[in-house]
Design brief:
single chain, alpha/beta, 6 helices, globular, disordered N terminus
């Protein structure tokens, strides 16, 4: 298929060819029902966040038209909660909606451990989550259909060898107080890699750790999970 994109008034003509594509996902039934329900929440996304999500969609669309993989790196403080959920839902939404050549990653300012409530939150809505060990560290293998390879979730720094080093989209899921400018991941990534990110954006989520150990812990995690799932559905529904 031939696609035409106008960038800054410049016409770019490209042939769409398969590039490291993943098969379109056929979700486990419970997950499919969850996303069907989440679609009803799309209109609740604030206009300010839709505007930021649209920028990510355009980045992905441009990469696809140029026959390049769209690598997305979600970064938070310790890669234990928000950035992991964003990675999961970005990959699931892309595969579910048939948006090819998208690969989601995550990292943090520091490496920690995956918050135990993440496993519970994802299992209750239909994911298959299996604890594993990766290089001596606790990790989880996550499945959402029978065809897709499992996603491996573990806490790591954003410069980990598992993550892209250049020409990726950098999405900060923490705000400026957690990811400060001069010494934050945006600048450190750019200084520590060959080309750094091709695209940077801040899409902060409220950290759920303050609810851990409290009566509302599960509810807070469920709400965050739903918010991220809904926003990733919106994002990939707008990649054309």
């Amino acid at each position: 298929m031939i696609a035409l994109l106008l960038l800054g008034g410049i016409g770019l003509l490209a042939f769409r060819l398969p590039l490291n594509s993943r098969p379109q996902a056929k979700l486990y039934p419970a997950l499919a029902e969850y996303l069907k329900s989440a679609k009803k929440d799309l209109e609740t996304i604030p206009a300010s966040r839709r505007a930021e999500l649209d920028k990510i969609a355009l980045f992905i669309q441009n990469k696809r038209i140029m026959d390049k993989n769209a690598n997305l790196l979600f970064v938070s403080g310790d890669n234990a909660r928000r950035s992991l959920l964003a990675q999961v839902w970005a990959q699931v939404a892309a595969d579910y909606l048939g948006v090819e050549n998208v690969h989601a990653f995550s990292g943090g300012n520091i490496a920690s451990t995956v918050a135990p409530t993440i496993q519970k939150t994802l299992e209750k809505i239909g994911f298959q989550v299996n604890p594993v060990t990766l290089s001596g560290q606790p990790a989880y293998e996550l499945r959402f259909d029978e065809k897709q390879p499992a996603l491996t979730l573990f806490s790591k720094v954003y410069t980990d060898q598992a993550n892209p080093k250049n020409n990726f989209g950098l999405i900060l899921t923490c705000d400026h107080t957690e990811c400060p400018g001069p010494d934050g991941p945006t600048d450190r990534i750019a200084k520590s890699t060959v080309q750094g990110p091709a695209f940077k954006i801040t899409l902060p989520y409220t950290p759920p750790r303050t609810a851990e150990g409290q009566a509302n812990e599960a509810a807070v995690y469920d709400a965050l999970n739903r918010q991220i799932a809904t926003e990733m559905l919106y994002l990939f529904s707008n990649v054309h």
